[in-house]
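step 3/5: co-fold with nicotinamide-adenine-dinucleotide
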Amino acid sequence: MPTFNILMLPGDGIGVEVMAEVQTLIDWFNHQGIARFEVEQDLVGGSAYDAYGEAISEAAMDLAQASDAVMFGAVGGPKWDAVPYEKRPEAGLLRLRKDLGLFANLRPAICYGALADASALKRELVEGLDILIVRELTGGVYFGEPKEIVDLGNGQKRAVDTQVYQTFEIERIVRVACELARTRRKKVTSSDKKNVMKSGVLWDEVARQVHSREYSDITYEHMLADNCGMQLVRQPKQFDVIVTDNLFGDMLSDVAAMLTGSLGMLPSASLGAPDEKTGRRKSMYEPVHGSAPDITGQGIANPIATIASFGMALRYSFGMGEWADKLDQAIAKVLDQGLRTRDIMQSGMREVSTTEMGTAIRQELAASA
Ligand code: NAD
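step 4/5: write tokens
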């Protein structure tokens, strides 16, 4: 039986509540003898600051480095608004991304048929939507130097951010996108602004080279990032995998995400480079949403984003794609049955709690086993 080490970091607020549903799901997998998941749990974010004075402890970082996957809930909340900047809850998340070298952020946008009417777009445009945005996460304009505001001394200031990419950074993210496209509908759209940015010229040049050298079985398409934003709301089903840089990925993935309805439905994965010896990638899985202080402690948070994030771990870290498919189908069935948490509630449906939603999904999964 395959054995995997998971570090579970529920974090703050509803992170704790939604992660409890993943823990119960993991217990089910273990109990059924489908896989052996060994779970360590630790603190991150505000709860870690309260306990250790840091947003994540060195011990938790060591566990993260040794794990097959990190399951991350959410961090933050008004309680920690005044803590020093470098110790703020989000610092734990950024440290994990940086130290684990998680350069590839995967954000699927899947529209469940039962929720198609909740989208801002017409049902026919989004029903059955299944696209994947692959965003470069550790480079580009958010990290490039110089990054500064300079006082020019004449009553003016000058702000600089630097958009910078090297060949290897583009190669590795395009490879991730092409590998993923191979398991899907075999199409990659690479998006940049090569019409006005040098980094875009290099991005496209390198992306084309990687494609023609290593992935000629995949359809490659280039699209300017502004057009890509427009096409995502005009005709989103034309896409399969979109690969893009940190800045454009940040925006395009939020656009794509909102095609599908609520924040409580959106999973994500972040992957590092494959280990030279084992081929294993460092990885972290987390819902897109935050700690939702406004609904914390009420038992009404939607656990689907976090459960679907565990589904991505099954697919990308544990080689259990069949189980990932079954879990996705279980989520779709529960929605078809009319069960809804409050954030996705529609008239005529049955409102359920976080735990009831988690239990219903587990029961559907068990029924398909
Ligand atoms: P948020 O995502 O926590 O909440 C935004 C809105 O969506 C709220 O009304 C909330 O109730 C609702 N919502 C979010 N997830 C939901 C779920 N699973 N089920 C039902 N409703 C859900 O964003 P925010 O309010 O801007 O931020 C709150 C805190 O979370 C802040 O401290 C922020 O810094 C932090 N944050 C953390 C992360 C992260 O940990 N990755 C991401 C975003 C925000």
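step 5/5: annotate
Residues 14, 18, 74-77, 93, 263-264, 286, 289-295, 301-302, 305, 343 surround nicotinamide-adenine-dinucleotide (CB under 6 Å).
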